[in-house]
Write the structure tokens for this entry.
Amino acid sequence: MKLLDGKLIADQIKDELAREVRENFIDKGLNPPHLAAILVGEDPASLSYVAGKERSCREVGFTSSVYRYPENISREKLFEVIDFLNHDPEISGFIVQLPLPRHISELEVIERIDPSKDVDGFHPVNLGKMMLNLPCFLPATPKGIMTLLERYQIETSGKNCVVLGRSNIVGTPVSVLLSRKSNPGNATVTLCHSLSQNIRALTAQADILIAAIGKQGFVTADMVKNDAVVIDVGIHRIPSETSKSGFRLVGDVDFPGVSKKCSYITPVPGGVGLMTVVSLLQNTLAAARMKLPAVQ
Ligand SMILES: NC(=O)c1ccc[n+]([C@@H]2O[C@H](COP(=O)([O-])OP(=O)(O)OC[C@H]3O[C@@H](n4cnc5c(N)ncnc54)[C@H](OP(=O)(O)O)[C@@H]3O)[C@@H](O)[C@H]2O)c1
């Protein structure tokens, strides 16, 4: 078994991004790319994700800013902030950290974002372009998974790929990307969800298995074909007496069992999560370049 090392690849990409920021922006007297995040409420996971994104921006020389609002922000006020960021020429791209409080529709918020600044790639315009294989911002987690497969030169063409989970941000887009006529792509994809029957029989056929269902340790060794490639998207915090923070992260895959049987596997942490952040940075750089014809 080999690790699909998200940290290794994310660090390589960060080096590439930092070089590009230096050569194409700073050395030319231009402002570096600027990623903004809107953060509503105090959800600990969201706070930690946004802090991680800010840290990563600093590492590659981007500017970052966070617009923080209380849980009870009105829909109108949130729209006002989105409109402001849509029109601020200093901002290359921005995200609205999900989940949002229940009184605000996530779809309405996503639709309010200017697609040319939608570096999370969740806007229907970007998702539609993705469907048609047109240039667009790809959603960060699926993009990160595709980059991992590409950089490890994992063959996807003609392979059986099973995706567990059909969310709009992970399962559905990654299944589209893997089945597209491109490289990586050209896989035969089965997309499973909570109503799928006989999931074990399906996963046992998978050359590439992607688990994105949000159920800790769901994928066990008996569900996995020998030498399969296993991508674990799940993130769960579980209590830990040995870590300083008091918790540790695990995924949707039972790593100790499955890693004995597969050819490649992503660890949690250190796998898809880091690739997600770096993909967001890549989208932000692309957004910044689109707004600066001089550096294209
Ligand atoms: N690493 C990263 O960067 C990253 C990014 C995003 C999410 N995540 C993590 O990935 C996991 C999934 O997140 P998400 O937002 O994609 O998922 P989500 O919106 O919670 O959706 C879960 C999906 O899994 C399906 N599902 C649930 N139980 C199932 C079962 N027993 N068998 C088959 N399918 C089942 C659901 O089916 P239905 O549609 O039928 O309900 C749904 O499609 C979570 O742990 C999340 O924290 C990680």
